[in-house]
Amino acid sequence: MGGEGAGARKLRPISYKLRGAEIPAPFGRDQITDGLADADAHRLFEDLLQQFSVPQDRLIRAAQKLEGARTAYLTRAREALRISPLLVTEAAVQEWLERIDSLESEARYSETNELHDWLNLAFGRNRHGEERPLDLRIHRRIGELYSRGGNAERAAREFELARQLAPRDIYVLRRLGKAYLDQRRLDDAGAILDLIAELDADAFVRNSENAALKARWHRDKGDLAKAAAVLHAAAEANPTSYYLADLLGQVQLERGHVEEAKSTYRGVLNLLGRIRDRNVWLAASGLTAAVVTGDVPLQVTYLSALAAASVTEEQAESIHRGVSGAVNRSGADLSILNRLAIALKIPDGSK
C-alpha cells in the first residue's frame, strides 16, 4: 500500500495461515502482518490512519469506526479462508501423501477415484475441468494407484501432469509410456520412447525396466523379432538380471523358438542359484524356468517358495498368467498349473 511523505511505508505485506519458516525472503516475521490476528489487524488499521493525510475532523470519525471495521474485516477474512482452496504447501502435500499411502498399503485401489475427487475439491479444482499440475509426488502416486486398479486412462492423465512438472524425468516418462500401452495407444507410447532415447541413448540397454517397456511396445505392434533383439541386448548388458532373461525367454517361446527359450531359462536357473536374495518375483521366474526346462525338483522348490511368500492377489494373477503362457508354449505338463493355483491360493485354477 502506498502513501505520501518520505517516511511512508511503500509496502505492507500481509500473511494468512503461514508459519514464520514459510514466509519468503526478503521479508522477516517482524515485517509481516498476520492477517488473522486481532492485534496485528488493529495495528495495521491504526498505521494506515496515521500514514495517510486525513483532516483532523475526519481522523477522529475514522478512529471511532476503527474497531467495527477491524471486526468486520476479520470476520470476512476468516470466512473467506475457511472455504478457500488448500494451498500447495509441504504440509498439505505430506498429508495427502499419507492418505495415498493408506490406500496403497491396504490395496484399496477401487477407492482411488474418490480420494482423487476429494483432493481436487480440497485444492479448489473442478474434477470436470482442466487440471493444472499440482505436485510431482501426488500425481505420480495417484497415477500408480490408478494403474494398479486397472484404470489406465486416469493413470496416464496423472503421469501427463507429473511430466509437465518434470519433463526430463525418465522414471515419469516410463510410467506414462506404460499407461499408454495399457490403453493400446501405440503411437503415443512410441513418442514417449523417442523422448527417452533423446534424453539417454543407452536407456533401453542399461536399464531393465526401460528395455521391458520398449520390448512390450514391439510385442504389442506384433514385431516379436525386434522385441527379442531389445531384450537380448539389455540382457547382455545386465548379465545378473533374471528379470530380463525371463522376459527374453517368454518372447522366444512366443516366437516358437522353444530350444532357444530352454537355453535362456537354463541360464536363468544358473543365475538364480548364485543369488542369495529371495522374493516373490525371483520364485516366479525360477518356477517358469524350471517348467520350461523340465526340472521337476526345482519346480517343487519354487512352488514351496511361492506358497510360503506373502503374495498379493494382483501378483498371484500375474504369476499364474505368466507361467500359464510358458506351459502352453513349451508343451510342459499342465498339472503344474493346478499346483501353482494351490500355492498362490487362487480359488479357481483356471485363472
String of helices and strands: EEHHHHHHHHHHHHHHHHH
Main beta sheet strand tally, sense and closure: 2 strands, parallel
Averaged pLDDT: 87
What are the low-pLDDT stretches, counting only 5+ consecutive residues below 50?
Answer: 1-6
How many separate helices? 17
| Major β-sheet strand ordering | 1-2
Helix content: 55-70%
Oligomer: single chain
Radius of gyration: 30 Å
Shape: elongated
Q: How far is it from the N-terminal to the C-terminal residue, by CA?
A: 70 Å
> DSSP strand (E) fraction?
under 5%
Q: What class, by secondary structure content?
A: mainly alpha
Kindly state the number of beta strands.
2
Tell me what you see in this structure.
The protein has 351 residues and is an all-alpha fold. 68% of the residues lie in helices and 1% in strands. The protein contains 17 helices and two strands. A two-stranded parallel ribbon has the order 1-2. α3 runs parallel beside α5. The longest helix is centred in the first third of the chain and has 27 residues. The radius of gyration is 30 Å and the shape is elongated. The N and C termini lie far apart (70 Å). The N terminus is likely disordered.
Provide a concise account of the structure shown.
With 351 residues, the protein is mainly alpha-helical. It is built from 17 helices and 2 strands. It is 68% helix and 1% strand.
Key attributes of the depicted protein:
351 residues, 2 strands, 17 helices, two-stranded parallel ribbon
